Amino acid sequence: VINKEAINKCIQIGLALNCSINPVSYFERKNYFYPDLAKGFQTSQLVLPIAVGGWLDVENEAGEVRKIRINRAHQEEDTGKLTHQGGETLIDFNRSSVPLVEVVTEPDFKDAAEVRDYAKKLQQLFRYLGVSNADMERGDMRLEANVSVRPVGQKELPPYRVELKNINSFRFMVAAIEFEIKRQIQLYEEGRDDELRQETRGWNEAKKETFLQRSKEEANDYRYFPEPDLPELSFEELRIKELKDNLPELPHQKMKRYQETYGLSTKSVQFLLCDKNTADFFEAAVEYGKKVGIEAKDIANYIINNKLDLVDTSTEQIVDDIKAKKANMVDDDQILETLAKEAIKEDPDAVEKYSAGKTGVIMSLVGAVMKKSQGKANAAKVKEILEKLLS
Question: Which residues, 6+ apart, have CB-to-CB distance to 265 below 8 Å?
């Protein structure tokens, strides 16, 4: 019997990744022998996966956005978990046959950092969709990177790829990919590129190196054939539309709304959206803030600057705290200008740097005014006054 909820989640993932949903799909048996697969075949998809041809926009630390192409998102069953201890291998079958979704990209990554940024974005997406906790440490989300290198100037892809497994953190993933790239380049430089072949390698964190697990088969080696015990899947347009309409607000949509509605900076929004619990807390606080006249921007700044433990903090607490501080805030232009002039007089070095074009130094002067006012000055107004005095 096909798990309808698992299929729906796969469709939702496909839609969130801008994929097309195949109107007809079916399962196949992937035949191979390995200790983690006791029955000798895995129920998977090859010819007609549920979702195909999507993309995910990924922003790096420099603010550059790259479009990572998604080849497919298909449903299959999970296998057992192997744990290697010394000369023994332990097998845990608790997760065996549990439905999972495999998302396959095109070979669009140039280095380990790009893979990390993509994986974090994917994790964030899964959590906002509510399809998984996506905790790597618990195995909710697993990464299998395929690595191959080619000589400079060569356009076609190499005739091999090395699949990396046993990766359960973003840090390990970056380390494993970087090591594997260096290993393959070294083989090229030593004239041993004939040793580069299709294979699966694990990551040994203790030794900081990859190790051979098994040779990697081609698709035809798995002898795929249609699963005789499961019916063909057929998706009506109405069902797909209903699932699409019921998608929650996704991170990129929240990003746009927070900026347009609340006037928040990109950096502030990224902090709030990094964790779904933080975003939910912020929105609940904004709703409460509307009742007592506290703006969303003040709430966002409070959450970001205080690095709150949301478990022990209520939305009412922070909004009431902001309100209390505003009531005691020094907002008088004449008082603030006097304090600003004192700060300028006491820090000629900062003034000189500001005049030389290093405008970021103004924040040290803002800090000096805040100290003089015992933290009660309106920081935004202080900054405006300082800019006026220094212009």
Answer: 259
- Rounded distance between C-alpha atoms, residue 299 and residue 258, angstroms: 12
Per-residue pLDDT of 162-205, as tens digits, reads 999 878 899 999 999 999 999 999 999 999 989 999 999 999 98
Average pLDDT, rounded, for the chain = 92
Question: Cα dihedral angle (193, 150, 160, 56), rounded to 10 degrees?
Answer: 150
Residues near 321 by beta carbon (within 8 Å), at least 6 away in sequence: 302
Nearest to 35 by CA among 86, 88, 76, 72: 88
Closest Cα partner for 329 from 376, 384, 372?
376
Q: Which domains does the chain have, with CATH numbers?
A: 4-245 (no CATH), 251-327 (no CATH), 333-390 (1.10.10)
Among 368, 369, 296, 291, which residue's Cα sits nearest to residue 330?
369
Report field, pTM of the whole predicted structure over 0.85: no
Q: In this predicted structure, which of 169-183, 235-249, 309-323 has the lowest mean pLDDT?
A: 309-323
